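Exercise 7. Given the encoded structure of a 388-residue chain, write a plausible sequence.
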C-alpha cells in the first residue's frame, strides 16, 4: 500500500484542455474538497493553442479576465464562391489557451487540496487495494480511487489503421494595412489545387489588420510543416497582396478524424478524457464544447455515485453514421468534400448547420437539413460505405 502522503481521491494525468476542464467542473461541485493530484510534463504557461466553439452565450468556463472575442457571421468558400451566413442568436467564440490556462491555474491554486506535479506518467494500472496506481518517471508511484487520463497510451486500437488526420499550421499576423473582414470567421476557404487530399484555410480576423491564418490538410500521412508554411505565405501573397506583416503567434497540431475508439484503458478505474475519449468531432475536429459536456457529465455521475459506464463519453449512433459518410468521402473522393461542406451551408441556415455539427439536433431536424443537399456523392459513399 502506498504511503498516505502519496494517496489521493483522484489523479488527473495530462493537464491540457480536458484535464483543466475536469478540475474546473469538479471545483464547482460538491466534490471540491477531494484530494486531487495533477500530473503533467509541462508547466502550462505557454500560449500554444486556439480553441473555438459556437453557442448563444459564452460557456461558464470561458475565461472571464480577458477580452471576449467572437464573430456573428461565418463564411465558407471554394474558389470565387463565398457562402456567408449569419449565426442569428449564436456566436462563434474564441479562446486563447494562455488565458484559459492562467484562469484555471489561478482557481486551482486557491484550493489547498489540489497538488500539481510536473513529471511524466509511465503507467496507470489497477492495484490490489481496489484503486489505481500512477507510476511516474521521477517521483515514484501514487495511489487514487480513480484516475482521469488524456495522455495517449500505447498500444492504441487505431495504431495499425490508416486513419485520416486533420493536420494544421497557423500564423497570427499583424499587417501594415487593413485587409481583413473583421465581422466574419471563415471556417473553410478550400484550396482547389489539391486533388489527392482535402485542404483549406481557416481565417479568424481579430481586426482589419490582424488575423489568424491557418492551413489545414486532411491526410492519412504525415505532412511536412515547411511545405505548409509555404502554403500560408502563398495564401497571404495571393489574397492580401504585397504587404508587410509580423507573425505574433504560431500553432500546429494533428487531430485524429475517426469514429473508432482508442482502446480500453489499462485500468478499469481510469476514465479517458478529451480526444482520447472521443470528444473530437470525427468529421470536423472540433473538441472544446464536447469536452465541457463530457466533464460536466463525469462530475454529475461522480456526485450521484453512478457506475463506471456513466463516466464514458457517449454519442448517438446516428452521428457516427453521418461522420463516417463524410470520412468515407474525404478518404476516397477528397475532391468532392469541399462541395459537400459548401452545399451544407449554402442551403441551410447558419444556426441549423452549427446545431447539427454540435450534435444538438433531433432526427427530424437532421432530416430537414440533409434532404436539401445534393445526393449523388452521398449515395456513392453509402454504396461503398466503410467505417473510418
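Solution.
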Amino acid at each position: 500500500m502506498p504511503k498516505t502522503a502519496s494517496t489521493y481521491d483522484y489523479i488527473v494525468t495530462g493537464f491540457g484542455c480536458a484535464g483543466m476542464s475536469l478540475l474546473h467542473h469538479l471545483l464547482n461541485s460538491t466534490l471540491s474538497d477531494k484530494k486531487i493530484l495533477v500530473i503533467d510534463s509541462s508547466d502550462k504557461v505557454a500560449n500554444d493553442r486556439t480553441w473555438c466553439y459556437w453557442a448563444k452565450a459564452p460557456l461558464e468556463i470561458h475565461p472571464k479576465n480577458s477580452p471576449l472575442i467572437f464573430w456573428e457571421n461565418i463564411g465558407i468558400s471554394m474558389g470565387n464562391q463565398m457562402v456567408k451566413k449569419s449565426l442569428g442568436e449564436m456566436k462563434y467564440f474564441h479562446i486563447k489557451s494562455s488565458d484559459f490556462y492562467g484562469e484555471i491555474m489561478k482557481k486551482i491554486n486557491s484550493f489547498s487540496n489540489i497538488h500539481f506535479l510536473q513529471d511524466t506518467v509511465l503507467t496507470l494500472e489497477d492495484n490490489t487495494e481496489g484503486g489505481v496506481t500512477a507510476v511516474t518517471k521521477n517521483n515514484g508511484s501514487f495511489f487514487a480511487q480513480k484516475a482521469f487520463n488524456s495522455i495517449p497510451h500505447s498500444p492504441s486500437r487505431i495504431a495499425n489503421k490508416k486513419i485520416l488526420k486533420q493536420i494544421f499550421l497557423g500564423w497570427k499576423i499583424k499587417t501594415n494595412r487593413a485587409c481583413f473582414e473583421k465581422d466574419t470567421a471563415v471556417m473553410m476557404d478550400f484550396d482547389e489545387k489539391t486533388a489527392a487530399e482535402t485542404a483549406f484555410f481557416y481565417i479568424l480576423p481579430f481586426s482589419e489588420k490582424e488575423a489568424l491564418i491557418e492551413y489545414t490538410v486532411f491526410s492519412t500521412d504525415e505532412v511536412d510543416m515547411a511545405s505548409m508554411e509555404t502554403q500560408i505565405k502563398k495564401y497571404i501573397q495571393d489574397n492580401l497582396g504585397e504587404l508587410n506583416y509580423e507573425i505574433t503567434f504560431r500553432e500546429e497540431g494533428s487531430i485524429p478524424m475517426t469514429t473508432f475508439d482508442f482502446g480500453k484503458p489499462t485500468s478499469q478505474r481510469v476514465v479517458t478524457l478529451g480526444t482520447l475519449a472521443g470528444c473530437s468531432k470525427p468529421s470536423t475536429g472540433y473538441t472544446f464544447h464536447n469536452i465541457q459536456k463530457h466533464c460536466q457529465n463525469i462530475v454529475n455521475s461522480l456526485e450521484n455515485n453512478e457506475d463506471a459506464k456513466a463516466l464514458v463519453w457517449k454519442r448517438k449512433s446516428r452521428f457516427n453514421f453521418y461522420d463516417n459518410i463524410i470520412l468515407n468521402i474525404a478518404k476516397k473522393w477528397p475532391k468532392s468534400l469541399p462541395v459537400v461542406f459548401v452545399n451544407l451551408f449554402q442551403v441551410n441556415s447558419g444556426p441549423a448547420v452549427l446545431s447539427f455539427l454540435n450534435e444538438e439536433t433531433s432526427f427530424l431536424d437532421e432530416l430537414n437539413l440533409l434532404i436539401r443537399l445534393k445526393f449523388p456523392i452521398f449515395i456513392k459513399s453509402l454504396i461503398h460505405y466503410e467505417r473510418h
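Remark. The chain has three domains: 4-47+97-157+262-311, 164-257, 317-383. Students should compare their own answers with the one above.
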